[in-house]
Design brief:
Length: 273
Amino acid sequence: MPELPEVETVKRTLEQLAVGKTIEDVVVTWPRIIKRPDDTRAFADMLKGETIRRIGRRGKFLLFYLDKWTLVSHLRMEGRYGLHHQDEEPDKHTHVRFILENQEELRYRDVRKFGTMHLFERGEELHHLPLSHLGVEPFTDAFTPLHLREKLLKTSRHVKSALLDQTVLAGLGNIYVDEALFLAGIHPERPGNTITEEEAVKLHESIVKTLQEAVEQGGSSIKSYVNGQGEMGMFQQMLFVYGRKGEPCKQCGAEIEKSVVGGRGTHTCPVCQ
């Protein structure tokens, strides 16, 4: 599933591809993707004539700011956007087509069909699910070591499970939690309420550093992720533990281990953590 760096990268490419363009019509071929409103014809009618003014991001969600509406889109496992000419035949995995001016289409493609779209009046999107429950953004002033420790002190869950909880911190997923915990030298099975003040400072620094570097590299293309221009991310070449089971740790040489923590595949160094 695309995490904060991947979604941020898609956002930045969509800013180049879609901002300023007007939607003339919408074609939906897999209605289950559209969650609000629950009628695809109404969804299309609401978007007709709307111009894409800005692209935003909240956690792992993309936000299309239009004239009157905000479209909240979650890519889930394999959703992706791309700009195409209308003469180009859409493939079988293209489920939503935003017909634009100048013979262009912004297409949403999703092999697994798990993605979601919600439409709200502008300004209302943050007051309703799926955005209203999200925790702080890692790149904002609200995310401090103190805030992080206060959240962790409230739970006896594994620290990894707590960090994956989107109500605690928005945007983190399996890849970047594993990487941040490694850099902080914290084992993912530590209960959240055992994290010390000093460890919270280091973990905060590791989370921000990992996400910033991942954004700079365009995210991680572990499976099928590409940005809005079809380009792969490159951060996977910099990973310390994720996906490196059996390989030597880049810091100490010990063999990277894989286990299951909170139902998620988890990579750790038995020495460094």
